[in-house]
Design goal:
single chain, alpha+beta, two-stranded antiparallel sheet, 12 helices, 7 strands
Length: 428
């Protein structure tokens, strides 16, 4: 039973995917039904009798033509209805008793009703019902009130009603499906909007928390500095307020930022930020990846400020990444970190001949064709935020050069010229 059901399901899917084959099969079945019906004699007794008459050649020709027209019922429904209606009317006018060519008209009328709007269905249906019923009543030898004549009226009327019902059901199902899809999209958009609004509210709360507590810490720190020498008790009290305010700020920040985390977010890193202290490990990762790197100078004593140390590490990391991606095979890189007065100079050189023009284009913001090109922009923004300068461009004779100058005293705001040493960072 399961095999039979699955077989019917596969056949139904195949016929749905091949509508012309389905219409051809339907037309063949209608032709067989019309030919079988043409052997029946309505009679005047207790029902029709079979084998008492045979169809005329002209009737068989009309039945074949009408069934053949049904093959195109989906593509040209109105034209197929017109052809089958004319052939049926010709059968009623010329043959007595007529063959059941009207079967093809019933199928064609159902197709028109199921694929057009309701006003068209009513107009075409009433016209077809009227013409065929009048032709059957006027030109047939049986009385006009015979059941065969009223059967033509009934079958054409039921075909129109059935087609209109199927069309209405399809429209209803499509409307429900569209409404469900629209509701799903609206629900998702509403959820995203609510999440965005909630995050905006949390961001405002975060701003209020930071502004309030930092202002309080600033005031109390100023008081402590003012009375430190003359009234140490009040200075201790002010510092205690600073401690309480900072603890409260940290607690509120932890709670507020925790609300922004989602279930799939990775845990916050607990290790310290990288710096030049782990430069050798960074260089080893690129060497293991197949890029020969030489550290020509790595002046890491005394330690740089944390922000400068991190920026220097990131500049070297991004520059070596660009060499690995764009310099081509056989490229070598050289890294140097040198302190010059109150600045630290980071230089990354390579002799690659792969995509130096591509990297230079990304420096100017044009980007790489594959959607990259933001590495140098990010390095420049990071260095500029500390008040430094960065220059990057092709080297004379081939290769690429990245040169960053970072002030030892990290600062934010408008960058200032780093002094005469900046001349070493100009593009060549």
């Amino acid at each position: 039973m399961t095999t039979l059901t699955s077989g019917f399901a596969r056949a139904r899917r195949w016929l749905r995917d091949h509508p012309l084959a389905f219409d051809a099969s339907l037309a063949f079945c209608v032709l067989i039904a019309m030919i079988c019906g043409s052997f029946a004699d309505p009679g005047k007794g207790h029902g029709p009798t079979f084998g008492t008459r045979t169809p005329e050649v002209f009737s068989v020709l009309l039945m074949v033509l009408a069934a053949s027209a049904l093959v195109l019922r989906r593509r040209r429904p109105v034209a197929v209805l017109a052809v089958t209606g004319v052939l049926t009317a010709a059968e009623y006018v010329l043959m007595d008793p007529p063959a059941p060519v009207v079967m093809s008209t019933v199928i064609a009328l159902y197709t028109v009703a199921s694929r057009t709007d309701r006003p068209t269905t009513w107009r075409v249906g009433l016209l077809t019902m009227g013409v065929l019923t009048v032709a059957a009543m006027v030109f047939g030898s049986s009385p006009w009130y015979s059941q065969e004549n009223f059967g033509v009226f009934a079958w054409t009327g039921m075909a129109s009603a059935a087609g209109d019902a199927v069309r209405s059901r399809r429209a209803f199902v499509d409307a429900i499906r569209e409404r469900a899809e629209r509701a799903e999209r609206t629900r998702e958009e509403e959820a995203r909007r609510r999440v965005a609004e909630e995050r905006l509210r949390i961001a405002r709360d975060l701003h209020d928390v930071v502004a309030h507590h930092i202002a309080l810490v600033n005031v109390q720190a100023g008081v402590a500095a003012h009375v430190m020498d003359k009234r140490p008790d009040q200075a201790k009290e002010a510092l205690a307020h600073v401690r309480d305010a900072s603890r409260s700020a940290l607690d509120e920040l932890r709670v507020t930022v925790g609300l922004l985390r989602q279930s799939g977010d990775p845990a916050a890193p607990t290790e310290p930020a990288p710096g030049l202290a782990v430069l050798d490990e960074l260089v080893d990762t690129f060497r293991n990846a197949g890029l020969p790197v030489e550290v020509a100078g790595a002046d890491r004593d005394p330690r740089l400020p944390a922000a400068v140390d991190l920026a220097a590490y990131r500049v070297i990391q991004e520059a070596l990444t660009n060499v690995r991606k764009h310099a081509g095979t056989g490229a070598r890189a050289e890294v140097s970190v040198v302190r010059v007065g109150a600045t630290a100079e980071i230089t990354v050189l390579d002799n690659g001949r792969g995509s130096a023009a591509r990297r230079a284009g990304s420096e100017h913001g044009t980007g790489a064709p594959d959607g990259g090109g933001h590495g140098l922009v990010g390095m420049r923004e990071r260095v500029t935020a500390l008040g430094g300068a960065l220059a990057a461009g092709p080297r004379y004779g081939g290769g690429f050069r990245v040169h960053a100058i970072l002030p030892i005293e990290a600062r934010t705001g408008e960058p200032e010229p780093p002094g005469p040493a900046a001349a070493t960072g100009e593009r060549r």
